[in-house]
Amino acid sequence: MKLKLLVIAFLALALQVHAKTDLKKVEPMNWWVGMNNPNLQLLVYGENISLTQPVLSYQGVQVKEIHKVENPNYLFIDLVIGAETQPGKFTIEFKEGKKNVASYKYELKAKNTQPNIHKGFSSSDVVYLLMPDRFSNGDPTNDNHPETVEKANRTLPSGRHGGDLQGVINHLDYIAQTGFTALWLNPFLENNQDAFTYHGYAISDFYKVDPRYGTNALFLELVNQSHQKDIKIIMDMVFNHCGSAHWFIKDLPMKNWIHQHEAYTRSNFRAPVISDPYAAQADVEKMLTGWFDTNMPDLNQQNPFLATYLIQNTIWWVEYAGLDGIRVDTQPYSYKEFMSDWAQAVMAEYPTLNLVGEAWIQLIPNTTYFQRGAKNRDGYDSHMTCVTDFPMHDALNAAFNEKEGWTEGMAKLYITLAQDFAYQHPENLLIFADNHDLNRFYESIGHDLRKFKMAMAFMLTTRGVPQVYYGTEILMDGMEHQGHGFIRKDFPGGWMGDTIDAFSLSGLNPDQADAHHYMKTLLNWRKKNEVIHRGKLMQFIPEDGIYVTFRYTDNKAVMVVLNNNEQADKTIATHRYKEILSLYKTGKEVILGTAYSKLDSLQIPAKSALIIELNK
Ligand code: CA
């Protein structure tokens, strides 16, 4: 009996020693042949995986180096994939002595060769920004998921409301028909935090769509269907931080994977220190290493393994889904050298992509600093092709609320454009009246439809890549100080039982219907007009409450007239604009279709806009 027990105990011990290691992650899960960069670094995660020796054999794939790090549950494997390597699968075996304790079937796929992918986005596009939790609930069965903690509760402004990727797919026609040509989705990767997960910026798995939004395959479906409708897809990526529920945060590969402080340290949120030639190092460090929020650990992109992990993660999504663009959250909060390396690596693989960095800074020189090709005195080049134009946002939000003055009212727009000499690529600035972090535009202009039309007439005809926040086209409102949930309300018609269905324009009030018609007319006109996409811009100093700009090429021109006077309808003598107008004889207003048989004078009502296509 005793002997029997001993044998059982021995067998149990032997089994434990040679037990299969539970391989939890190999990332990237797959890769592709024919990439520009032949190097690939695999992150392998499993209990005591570093005690094993990984072995693989595949023609054209060389194991260059195997890295053991502080935490024995991680291994990093450097592979070199030769230019001639063929697509296929191979097994990575993890050996202890001669025993295999784990294995992983790795696939090198052929690259996606569809013609309508990786198209980038540009000033020929208008981007529609939407928050997946708040746009449309296309699949009520996924509102709650057993794998994720926070459950749906539509009564909470900061709760999950059940919107998802299927909801977006269901309404691609609405987006396309309204006249948008690109779609930026706020992040939809897994956020398995306890609360506040609806916005998506606390990612807990960089390779997995949150199950409450759908699956990776459903996202691929969304991209493919969007491309069929000529809508480009921009994915929102976060490199500064992740969620505290991220699996690698719970078992850090290395202490310096994230920035750790003795006591909780918040970022000072002072982006200008990054370009400040006189910045104190203490301020720079707090900006870069302080946490964005208590539940968002600050990633240390100076750790080369993490840097590679993040860059490969981006490339994986671009290749997997055929993305057209990337929006980079909190660009100045990550080490600027990393952001530059990241942008160069992505553009080396996909030269036709467009990358837009969120550089939330009020002043123009601070903004130019973060765009590719800037002539910065410190030699820094972000290689970020596009940046957010917050100075233009601020001007747009002030211009039509203010009385005209030397620097007030529309002079703010004029002065902003006049400083474009500082940008190397003013045509590739993302311009917007509002977004998911800002007061809803209609609220900020005092619910005044006249101001709304003036602002949209300007924004959709000036230089840059316009971005419209979901619901702005139907005058959704809300102030940021009420709480973020109030600027991210549910799009009416996105949920079963909604009394208003904006998708079919049913139940909208007259102002909303008018705004939507205005936007749809202007957007669809803009879509076909290269003179707006690539034409030159000329502006005349606002005088007497009238601001005139032109977009023009050698044989085409569009005149935009804004009248910011509160009462006076104006008759404008057009002699002052003869540099362009002398070349043209007639015109047609874009929204109303009014024909102008001569152009020597124009009538314009108070607080309104004219967009006139000129004819020779
Ligand atoms: Ca849902």
In short:
The protein is 25% helix and 23% strand.
Task: Estimate the global geometry from the Cα principal axes.
Answer: elongated
Strand order of the largest sheet: 9-10-13-14-15-16-17-18
**Structural domain tally:** 3
**Which stretches are low in confidence, meaning pLDDT under 50 for 5 or more residues running?**
11-18
| Percent in helix | 25-40%
List the total number of helices.
17
State the major sheet. 8 strands, parallel, barrel
Output the structural class: alpha/beta
Question: Can you name the CATH architecture of the largest domain?
Answer: Alpha-Beta Barrel
* Whole-angstrom Rg: 27 Å
Q: Which molecules are bound in this entry?
A: calcium ion
CATH topology of the largest domain: TIM Barrel
Q: What is the straight-line distance between the termini?
A: 107 Å
- The H-level CATH homologous superfamily of the largest domain, spelled out, is Glycosidases
Report the sheet-strand fraction. Answer: 15-25%
Number of strands: 26
- Highest CATH level, the class of the largest domain: Alpha Beta
